[in-house]
Design brief:
The protein is of the alpha/beta class. The chain has eleven helices and nine strands.
């Protein structure tokens, strides 16, 4: 059980901005919610798109059920939402972030879409430990990641990230800090994230829609060199843009957002013209 109830604020819920005939499906990453895709959804809605931001199974206020979900559950949710939008909308644009980008790549290889935008396309974490997760999950069912990470509770970035995840908590309360440090996470969950990344990687050669890839040069979660190396594996036209930013290029409060929004807008307008 979680020591707190995260993601209860309404902005973490799925969104639907009714627009015109073109539509966009937006897919968040781990451990995020629809909130991280809202600014991009609003940008596309301003261009006339119907923008739908889904909440993947087990995320948001349902996060206590997340260890029971699988990469296939998440992919099925994306495919189902695409099928629903395709019934009444065209062209259809798919937008993903991080793990959501991996799922979007996997979905785009199975469903008919007209354009793909992926922020920080997640593939894998460098090192042998990541590849060993299928074995590790059998012998070490749970781990306390915060005990391993040894976070600095006084670090402003860490505090902000924790506040976004658990709004309203008193990070300076020693008892709260101990609860955070002792929080158990099933290893199997990380293995499902690994599977999602592998799904996206394997789907790259099967892409058929024009693609925009957005990558932060200072991204500490999605390795820049992996994103660059994978560019040659796309069989379709790819527009690639790097920015002076981290893993949160989608965040309108970050300095890179203006240029990110410009790239998204140009790509979407081009899609509408074709």
């Amino acid at each position: 059980m979680l020591p707190f109830k995260p993601f209860l604020a309404p902005e973490h819920e799925p969104f639907h901005f009714e627009g015109g005939q073109p539509a966009a499906l937006l897919v968040h990453g781990f451990p995020g919610t629809s909130l991280e895709m809202r600014a991009t959804g609003e940008t596309l809605h301003e261009l006339g798109f119907t923008a739908k931001g889904i909440l993947l199974p087990g995320f948001g206020s349902e996060i206590e059920s997340l260890p029971k979900k699988t990469a296939q559950d998440w992919l099925d949710a994306v495919l189902s939402a695409l099928e629903e939008l395709r019934r009444n909308h065209s062209p259809l644009l798919l937008v993903g972030n991080s793990m959501g980008s991996a799922l979007s790549l996997a979905a785009a290889a199975q469903a008919k879409i007209d354009g793909l935008i992926i922020y920080a396309p997640f593939w894998k974490i460098p090192g042998p430990l990541w590849a060993s997760l299928p074995v590790i999950r059998r012998v070490l069912p749970q781990v306390k990641p915060m005990r391993i990470m040894k976070p600095d509770f006084n670090n402003s970035q860490f505090r902000q990230g924790l506040a976004d995840f658990l709004p309203g908590i008193n990070i300076d309360d020693p008892a709260i800090r101990e609860q955070i440090l002792d929080f158990n996470v099933p290893i199997g969950l990380f293995d499902e994230i690994r599977k999602a990344g592998q799904m996206g990687y394997q789907a790259i050669p099967h892409q058929a829609a024009p693609t925009l890839i957005l990558q932060g040069r200072a991204d500490n979660l999605v390795d820049l060199k992996f994103t660059r190396a994978n560019l040659k594996r796309y069989p379709v036209q790819v527009t690639y843009a790097e920015f002076d930013g981290g893993h949160d290029l989608y965040d309108p409060s970050r300095p890179a957002w203006g240029k990110v929004k410009e790239q998204v807008t140009l790509f979407a307008k081009h899609l509408l013209q074709n």
